[in-house]
């Protein structure tokens, strides 16, 4: 008798096999990423032949991948495969790690983000980031949102700033819960509220892309559901790249999924294709729970 989780894994394998026979039986990574890592149009971020090193250790190998405009791209793979490393390349967050070196090309629309002339502060406003652990500033809820627009000079006066604060909190689905206590400290909110506050903070400076690294892993299922609904709404206006350990979450929120293994991008495709009929044995082994 199989335990419930084994049965689920087994059934997923059976169902996956029933859809189509496997084309690739090898557990060797392919020479070239399978599926459709590159898009024909509506690309927000273009990554080409990206390698990342920490000192002598290579963490990312020759990754070429587009992030489409207004899509949610999920990045999945076993722990240590390089998801966070790759995500951090997209807004030069890896610059903050001394030993880290990034080669290859990454463009936001037509701009090379690694061009020495690139204003990195501005880049990080255009490509915002939401982390695993909510990290509000130890300031009021209002200030958490107002700080970015103020330093980036996005407003002329207090009325405009108030509007940005309200709109950002409303778009993050938090306004009704906090409108009567904007002066309370942000760190006093619940975990799920703090994460929505951080999303509101990212939105407040008009980003084009939002990067999320396991944004729900510290949240309970109800707060997770709220953030997932929010991600779906945000897709109307923003491009989102999200790292997640939850395959259910990737299936629920994303349109395309990228599977990483030992620093290599094995396969990228429409999310339902990755989860029902993956092209590579390594992807299938991961999604059916045989490793990772
Ligand atoms: N600051 C760092 N200095 C040195 N090596 C690092 C650093 N950060 C990550 N690495 C190494 O790079 C590789 C990829 O790590 P990364 O954190 O990107 O993986 P991940 O897929 O995000 O894993 P997880 O799912 O556990 O978060 C690992 O071998 C890791 O040890
Ligand atoms: Mg990580």
Radius of gyration: 20 Å
Assign the CATH class. Answer: Alpha Beta
Q: Describe the strand arrangement of the main beta sheet, using strand numbers.
A: 1-11-10-4-9-8-7
Regarding quaternary structure, what we see is single chain
Count of individual helical segments: 11
**What series of H and E elements makes up the topology?**
HEEEEHEEHEHHHHEHEHEEHH
What is the fold-level CATH name, i.e. the topology? Rossmann fold
Q: Profile the largest sheet.
A: 7 strands, mixed
> Hey, roughly how much beta strand do the residues contain?
15-25%
Count of all domains: 1
Provide the CATH superfamily.
P-loop containing nucleotide triphosphate hydrolases
- The CATH architecture is 3-Layer(aba) Sandwich
Q: Which residues sit in consecutive blocks of at least 5 with pLDDT less than 50?
A: none
How does this structure look, described?
The chain has one domain (4-136, 208-287): P-loop containing nucleotide triphosphate hydrolases (Rossmann fold, 3-Layer(aba) Sandwich). Helix content is 36%, strand content 24%. The protein is of the alpha/beta class and 292 residues long. The strands form two sheets. A seven-stranded mixed β-sheet has the order 1-11-10-4-9-8-7, sandwiched between helices. It has a four-stranded antiparallel β-sheet with strand order 3-2-5-6, covered by helices on one side. The protein starts with a helix and ends in a 5-residue tail after the last helix. β2 and β3 form a beta hairpin. The mean pLDDT is 92. The chain is built from eleven helices and eleven strands. The site of adenosine-5'-triphosphate has 12 residues, from α2.
